[in-house]
Amino acid sequence: MKRNIFKKVYDWLDERYDLTPLIEFGKHKKVPVHEHTIWYYMGGVTLFLFLIQAFTGILLSMYYQPGPDSSYESLRFLLTKVRFGWLIRSIHSWSANLMIFFAFVHMFSTFFTRAYKKPRELTWVSGFILLSLALAFGFSGYLLPWNELAFFATKVGTEIVGAVPIVGPIIMKVLRGGSDVTGATIYRFYAIHITLLPAIFMLVLALHLVFVQKHGMSEPEHLANLPESKKKYIPFFPNFLLRDLILWLIVFDILVFLAVYYPWELGLKADPFAPAPAGIRPEWYFMFMFQTLKLLPGHVLFIEGEVLGILLFMVGGLAWMLVPFWALKERPGRRIQPMEFIGVAVLVYIGVMTILGYVL
Amino acid sequence: MEVNRRKFTNFLIGGGLLGWLASVLYPLITYLIPPKVEEQSLNSVKAGKVDDFPPNSGKIIKFGRKPVLLIRTETGEFRAFSAICTHLDCIVQYREDTKHIWCACHNGMYDLTGKNISGPPPRPLMPYVVRIQKNEIIIEKPTNLG
Amino acid sequence: MKIGYLGILMSLFLGVGPLMAQSQDDDKTTNLQRLVEVDQCVACHIDEEALPEGLHENDIHLRVGLSCAGCHGGDPTSDDMDIAMDPARGYVGIPDKREVPRFCGKCHSDINFMRQFRPQVETDQEEQYYTSRHGKLLLKGDTKVAVCTDCHTSHAVFPASDPRSSVYPTNVPITCKKCHSDPDYMASYKIPTDQFEKYAESVHGQALLKKKDVGAPACNDCHGNHGALPPGVTSIGQVCGNCHINNLQYFQKTKMAEEFKKMDLHDCIECHGYHSVPPTNDDMVGVGEQSTCIDCHDEGDEGYKAAVQIRQLLLDLTTAIDSAKVLKKRVQIIGMDDLDIEYLLKDAHQQLIHARTVVHTFDPKQVEEKTKTGLERAKEAIQLALEEIKEYHRRRKGFLFATLFTTLLIIGLFIKLRQIESEQKSES
To answer: How far is B9 from chain A (nearest CA, A)?
Structure first.
């Protein structure tokens, strides 16, 4: 009986939209099994966290009122008067951090398994763009509570943008909505955070997912060269999907645990005329850049240290985005491949700078 | 045996799913139900019904974080002032006998326009705007925008 | 500074005049310019560049239409100097310093004349002046003392409510200081010259000169203006009590006030000083280093005990308020409701302020009445803050409930997966 209703609905849809190929695709889609299979799940987890972001973001926007007089107050209202307001807000904040964390993991696992190689170049590029957008999400969302930390972190962050030669000052002014971080900045960041970024993100995300489906899972080279009989696969549906689901639930549980046991604080309301409190630092995912700029000397040759740092990061970012197009050839026999070396160097650099940022 | 195990698994999944949905939906739905105080209002506050205030009386109203003194004069007119004394931040009150605003801490006096008239207060009290809407008293922050 | 004719003409033609014309009051040129046409004194003195030093265009006398002759007499209609400045036509010229009070008093002591400018005007300044130390010495022939023009200036006179006036509240100390802080000038009077220095550092001076709070007292608020005298040592309490009403009332009812009289001590100033009145703090009571109580009281006497008690009461309350404040900030930072805590704290703070006034009863019991209520409020605030912080942690409990089902679901799905996979294996 139950089955009948499902079947009827399915038939009705199938007749009009031809669903069978989709189901077949799911059934026949196979996921290779090997010692690196675990990395296949990282993209899915990132996607799951993005969905949570979208969902909790919508919920938050129902109570949040952007504005220099209302941002902090409306958030205070949400936290103190709206039931479970604190939970939704805390999940949104934690999920943002976890999402960026998993995006990084996803990216480096792709890098080290050399999954960006032909034909997946554009998948890598679109993934890099997604990560950049996620960072922009983080930066713009950080200001919205309009508390002391947010205010000064944004001030410093936009100042760094302003140090970019030629276009920097204009971009900074446009970002801030004036020459300083004020109420106008909140409105801009709010608009960017809830309309502009989601729209672009969805588009790039859709492309990214289509690319992934088009090519299927990438196999590490030593596996791809094995004869078909020695390879192990599991079906995408239901085996891989169930595993995905279980992992999502575990991540969900951890997320809720973090949100409940380490709720995000509200802080003190921003006072633009107060001196900056000690220990102003950006979110952890910007720390390595922030720390680098701090450590650079005032002048390197004829160029300002900060400007040089920014330029290097821009060049570095661009190079990283275009990795598939210049990746060094593997050298058989070498224990450490050149690309592996580059990847490890980048990881160590980010790790050391981040730690220094918190220790110094 | 096999069937039983399968039934048990399905029961576990079904029960877990129901419980999980409940624990996700409960906070969600209560979140969406508007809280008692419907909105965070920054610029005005409802002080009560006109009839609850006899002439020649005053009452402290909480205006967010700031106390406001609402006065109904002998002639029945409503006025509101910041209730924070300009001398040392004590809270002022309306005195029915002298018909003045009075600060108990150092015997500071203000007239019914909020002007400091005796004692140590150095400045007048900031006035708030009082509006009556359908028998309801609404106190508003003064704006320079007109 | 002399105002050159050229200067006036320039400012006229360069358009300052028309710009300012909308407000006659502040019009920089018309007051004099108007007079040039009709008043030969002005016309001639401009030509000769012999306008009096410090003449201000908006001097109140010029503004109400009085010209030179209004005070100095003579005939302003004649351009012949001999006629215009003929003593027979009432010309008095520059009065002798001893004559100045009378010179101004001609008008200012005449209510019938003064009324036409301001109905509620006072006309007793001259009379008061002769009762002041300045006036008395002048009568004795001492021309070093201040007369009207020394404080009000001669030709830049403004009402005391005008910030440009030399007797506007924030300018009064500077005006008095001109003579009173000059040791050479004051040498013959054998009085101190450090009043301004002390006053500027005092709570009053800081409020008036630094914060520009014109509600704070300047020299004249305690010493009087035209009748300026040092306040009599017996009346000093009354002087302070003009503003500090409660403090005086409490003090006057104490045993100490009586004893003070017997011992020829002078009320407020014994503890608070006079020109140097420092901002008060709680350490002024008690038996610590800054205490004023131990100037008279010794260990063992009643007053000493009371001082210790009162200090302790204040300390208990301030400590409680401080810890409540710290907790309140924590509550605010973690995003819990701190509004009620804030109102309780306001109340506690009010009791503290009140208690500090009641200190002037020197009665620990009366102080305790206030601090007790304050302490209760502060404790309620602390309680409420702790409650909020507890609630912040209590919310975690709901997590256990949610995680139970999530875990069940995970386990269920995991078993399901194993089943499916073992089936797939047996199938193949």
So the answer is: 14
Tell which of C408, C417, C419 to mutate to test the B interface (max B CBs under 10 Å).
Answer: C408
- What angle in degrees, to the nearest 10, is found between the helix axes of C364-394 and C339-358? 170
The residue segments making up the domain with residue C335 are 302-395
- Kindly state whether C332 is in contact with chain A, defined as any CB-CB distance less than 8 angstroms: yes
Answer whether A266 touches C (CB < 8 Å). Answer: yes
Question: What distance in Å separates residue C343's CA from the closest CA in chain B?
Answer: 8
- Are C407 and C390 within one domain? no
Burial letters for A142-171: b for 16+ Cβ neighbours within 10 Å, e otherwise? bbbbbbbbbbbbbbbbbebbbbbeeebeee
Q: Which two tokens stand for residue A221?
A: 């080279």
A256 CB neighbours in chain B (<8 A) are: none
C268 and C366 in a single domain? The answer is: no
Of the segments A12-16, A184-188, B66-70, B71-75, which one has the largest average pLDDT value? A184-188
| Interface predicted TM-score (ipTM) of this complex, two decimals | 0.84
Q: Does domain B44-140 have CATH number 2.102.10.10?
A: yes
- Chain B hits for C415, CB-CB cut-off 8 Å, are 9, 12
Q: Of the candidates A70, A74, A81, which has its C-beta nearest B35's C-beta?
A: A81
Instruction: Inspect the interface and report whether the beta carbons of A268 and C329 lie closer than 8 Å.
Output: yes
Q: Do B22 and C350 count as a contact with CB atoms less than 8 A apart?
A: no
Per-residue pLDDT of chain C (428 residues), as tens digits, is 344 444 444 444 433 333 333 344 444 456 677 777 778 888 888 888 888 888 888 888 888 888 888 889 888 888 888 888 888 888 888 889 999 999 999 899 999 889 888 888 889 999 999 999 999 999 999 999 999 999 999 999 999 889 999 999 999 999 999 999 999 999 999 899 999 999 999 999 999 999 888 888 999 988 888 887 777 666 788 889 888 888 999 999 998 888 888 888 888 999 999 899 999 999 999 998 889 999 889 888 889 999 999 999 999 999 999 999 999 999 999 989 888 899 999 999 999 999 999 999 999 999 999 999 999 999 999 999 999 999 888 888 888 888 899 999 999 999 999 988 888 888 87
Interface contacts (A, B; CB < 8 Å): 34
The pairing of beta strand B78-82 with beta strand A233-235? unpaired
A83–chain C Cβ distance below 8 A for any pair: no
Separation of alpha carbons B112 and B125, rounded Å? 10
Q: Comparing C-alpha atoms, which of A111, A157, A104, A120 is closest to residue A306? A: A157
Q: In angstroms, rounded to a whole number, what is the distance separating the alpha carbons of residues A144 and B66? A: 25
Number of domains in chain C: 5
* Chain B contact probe: residue of A81, A91, A251, A269 with most B CBs at under 10 A: A81
For helices A197-215 and A40-61, the axis angle rounded to 10 degrees is: 160
Same-domain check for residues C130 and C184: yes
The reply to whether C110 falls in a domain is: no
User: What's the token pair of residue A271?
Assistant: 């006072």
- B2 vs A350: which has the higher pLDDT: A350
Chains in contact with C via at least 3 Cβ–Cβ pairs below 8 Å = A, B
A260 part of contact set with chain B, CB < 8 Å: no
Taking CA atoms, what residue in A is nearest to B20? A249
Question: Rounded to whole angstroms, how far apart are CA atoms C120 and C123?
Answer: 10
Residue A157: φ, ψ to 5°: -60, -45
Query: Are C271 and C348 part of one and the same domain?
Result: no
Given CB atoms, is A271 within the 8 Å cutoff of chain C? no
Q: Are C208 and C238 part of one and the same domain?
A: no
Check: CB of residue B56 under 8 Å from CB of residue B74.
yes
Quote the CA–CA distance of C320 and A279 in Å, as a whole number: 29
Write the DSSP string, C135-187: HHHHHTT-TTS--HHHHH-SS----TTSTTSTTSTTTHHHHHHHHHT-HHHHG
Q: Least CB-CB distance to C399: which of A238, A252, A256?
A: A256
